[in-house]
Amino acid sequence: MKLQQLRYIVEVANNELNVSLTAEKLFTSQPGISKQIKQLEDELGAQIFQRSGKHLSGITPIGEKVIDVARTILNKTHDIKVIAQEFTKPNCGMLSITATYTQARYALPPVLRVFMQHYTDIALKMEQGDSAQCLANLKNRVTDFAVLTDLTDLSEEMIALPCYHWNQAIIVPKTHPLAQQVVISIAELAKYPLITYDAAKDGVDIRQTFIKAGQSANIIFNTADADLIKTYVRLGVGVGIIAKMAMDKTEDNDFIILNASHLFSYNTTYIVFLRSLYLRNYMYDFIYQFSPHLDKKTVNQALSCANNNQILTMFNGVKLTVK
């Protein structure tokens, strides 16, 4: 049994049984991968993959268990290299982050600017995706950290640390009827077409607030992109409901920004990582720079918790920043 064979079966599973795509990603040949998988199956005396002709069509029950163990072994071999590098090259390595649009566009840039100035030999890898993609990247170890709001797909192998709260704001052109309102109600908002976030992608669903108030939200445009919300509000298409931190007082001075904290509950941004991740010192620093209440001691305390419910309880008395 070879590590290479374990890597092949894990990557084939990650790539939805597409051997050709796996070969392309691993810079090797399709016949070479197929041969190594067959040799491993012969050694085990059991099929890992189901086949339909020459194509892989599924994973056998024993294959599921073998692949799970193979993932663990590969992860541990990676950790051995990381541990060695922590002592030999403490300020060298990679920081990979997958974040939802709002976090990637508005929350992370100032933090990463300072981080990269300090850690000049750390390679940064960024990816933007919806909440499900962020957590899928974590599960598949494509990324070290996910920064997001929606924890619907969170699994027990993941650690979620609360970073800060953020509120929504209502934005309208200066000539809009709502521009003169001091306090806006849900009933008043229901009179206008709305442009806001896609709940499926960003985890923020304002519809529930309207339903609880006995109103219907006339949402004409859903998007994860705050800049698109601004664009269509500028066109006069509708009223924007947007993350307050996405508004710039200088660049967005053509809008009236109205408080919505009394209408919509605040959202919480989390930084999420696998419990099995070996946290290097520069990773602790990144977490701390993103959320100063998450120092190394606090992160390690969270890691000692049995599950995420205990972690959330641990932060009950912590007053998070509101953006």
UniProtKB/TrEMBL annotation:
Gene3D superfamilies: Periplasmic binding protein-like II (3.40.190.10), Winged helix-like DNA-binding domain superfamily/Winged helix DNA-binding domain (1.10.10.10)
A GO molecular-function annotation: transcription cis-regulatory region binding
Cited Pfam families: HTH_1 (PF00126), LysR_substrate (PF03466)
Keywords, alphabetical: DNA-binding, Transcription, Transcription regulation
Domain HTH lysR-type: start-end pairs: 1-59
Transmembrane domains' residue ranges: none
Nuclease among keywords: no
GO biological process entries: cysteine biosynthetic process
Family affiliation: Belongs to the LysR transcriptional regulatory family.
Name of this protein: LysR family transcriptional regulator
